[in-house]
Amino acid sequence: MKKLIIKGISLLNFKGFSKIHVPFNSYGAVILGGKNGYGKTTLFDALELLFTGKIQRMAEYNSYHNNRYSISQDEKPLVYNTKLSKEVVISAELEIADVHFVLRRKADVYRMRNPVDFNAFGKLLIVEPDEIERELTDEELKSLGIFDLGKSYSFLNYLSQEEATTFLKQKEADRAEMLSKLFDLEIYERYINKISKVQHNLGELKKHWQSQKKNADTLIKKLQSSGFNETNNQVEYLQISTDFQKNKWDAKSPCLSYEEFNAFLEENGIFDNLSYLAQNFSEYQKYRKNLYINQHNSEEEIHRLAFCTKYSFLEEDLKLYGEFQKNVLQPASSLTIFNLDSFTLTVPNDLEQLIKEGVLQILQGRINDLKEYCKSFGNIQKVQASILEMRNNLAGLIKNSSPETKRCPLCGHEYTSSKLLLQKLDDQGKLLMDQMHDSSVEIHKMLDSVKKEILVHVITPAIEYFTGKTINDEIFKEYYSLDIKGLTNTLNIFKEKLKITIDATLSVEAISETISNHLKSAILEYDETLDFKQMDKTYSSYGRFIKKECLNEDIIQKKRLYLTELWNKSKSEQLKRSERELNYINNILANIDCKINEFKSLQKDVQDSEKGYLRKLLSDIKILFYIYSGRIMQDNYFGRGLFIREDLDRKRVLITSSKDEHDEVDALFNMSSGQLVSLVVALTLSLNKLYSSVPFIAIDDPIQTMDDINLWGLIETLRHDFNNHFMVLSTHETDYGKLLEYKLRKWGIDTEYIEMSQLHQIQNEND
Hints:
Helices cover 57% and strands 10% of the residues. The chain is of the alpha/beta class. The strands form 3 sheets. A 6-stranded antiparallel sheet has the order 2-1-4-5-6-7, covered by helices on one side. The protein has a 5-stranded parallel sheet with strand order 8-11-12-3-13, with helices on both faces.
């Protein structure tokens, strides 16, 4: 066991220190004294952060912050001043087995966060004599004992003020877990976890195969209860469907499941329904025929059919009427002076023969002349409007002039007064307005004349033509509102199936009457007691795919026998397969149960070994704990002693203060804070003495809550049992600090007392 001696601590930009070096000139113990607030705990924090990479008491401070609100990052908890240095540096000069070296841990200030965050601190560094820093290798960490010290520091080697009762305040199970980690029981836990994982997987595997077994049992029972006789009868294959690839049940070797075979062959199954359909197919055809007729026998439907019959022969004329409406009638009806320029008279070719020869050319010439005249009139109108505007402006100037204006600025004529001059200007303006009005009236007359000629020579002959064909706007709209394709298909079915003949030259009313009479006479009587709903379902699903000549009872029965024979063979083979599969599943389940029992036994053996090992370790701890707690506490309330009581079956560790060792009341509930601190100090010293790989212990101000008698007991324990340890202690009481120094020195322990207030004063002077 190599002794660790701290020769000094250096801090840069850390907590309350900008830059400080605290030399330790003792080989046995260092006592940090001085009132609270001078940096004693800061040095303990620095050592903990150096060895472990974090400060345990601050590690969970993030949980205290409400994350819904952000915090300024200008100031940070572990940084003295963000502008002082880019880094926070913690260094310690150490001596281990006569080897001197400097350990260092650093953090980039800009990577540090508020609230506290230790992720910014890098790995542990060693400083070479030439001040070159490098990371410690894993081998170096282990050989120097730093690796083990870092793992156990917060539990075995250091007791802080704030965390003095942390162990006691843990859940009972968490205490056991902490002791397990301390005593390196993880190897047992790893084995137990692996075994538990295997047991879980075996359990899931068992559930899977039990489900498979249940399915196999169910299938075997179904096959056995279905009643089949395996025979060697040869039944002739007959394809009865129009396409067996779409109807897989009609294939020579159909690939059907148990459920599908059963659906076809069971009582009231598909083949029973097909036989029923075949037996009553003639009645079903009557039913379907009547149903189809009734679907089209309404007055509205018959009118649509008659209308389609009448006018489908005039479809070309109806299309021509549509072109006439679009290209002639609508443009001519909406023709005005304002859209004249875009107007074009486009008469469909089939209607040109109705118009007298040469009329279209004459009309087109009239339209073009009218367009030119309107264009010229528009230009003249603009000039006249400009002249009127100028006259109005001139009249305004004359009216407001001073002195009075009597001479006309346009012609130079001298009038007797400006009033007379204004009257003449007004008369000329009215004359221009009259001329513009007369021109507009003339243009409208010409436009009306052109529209009248279009009406007489183009529109009227066309309308007379369409009237002769009984086509008008109402007929046109109704025709194109109908589903002509669907109605035509219905009429074709009527002609083919019902032998209806219709004269399209008749009126719509006459055609409607003809269709209605034919439909009434086509209605057939049928047996209404039959189940036509079931036959409908059977026909739509299967019957419509069967060849007409095969839809009879004999052929359906032959097909049933063929499928029954195949089904019997299939069931026999499937039963054998299922029984083999069930045997295979039972063997697997037996093996799984065997493995589960083996692992259960193995788990119990490992758990028993773990408990035995932990009991031995706890028995070792108990001896030292009883000694140290007795020394430190001397006596407590009513003289009751302290006991460590473990219940490893329930994974808990109790520390009780009672006359009865078997009491289950935890000491946390019936001891004062000073007594609890003494208890924890005793436990920490016991664990350190037994299990710390490095003879080092740090205790931050244990005297704050301890009684005087407890302090004397602690001093005696430290100087007698830990005289070969390097100790870092602190106290805010100068008298106790000096007493501790005196007692340790008297026992031959090299001890140094450092007054922190003096160091703080020196730093302030340097700053």
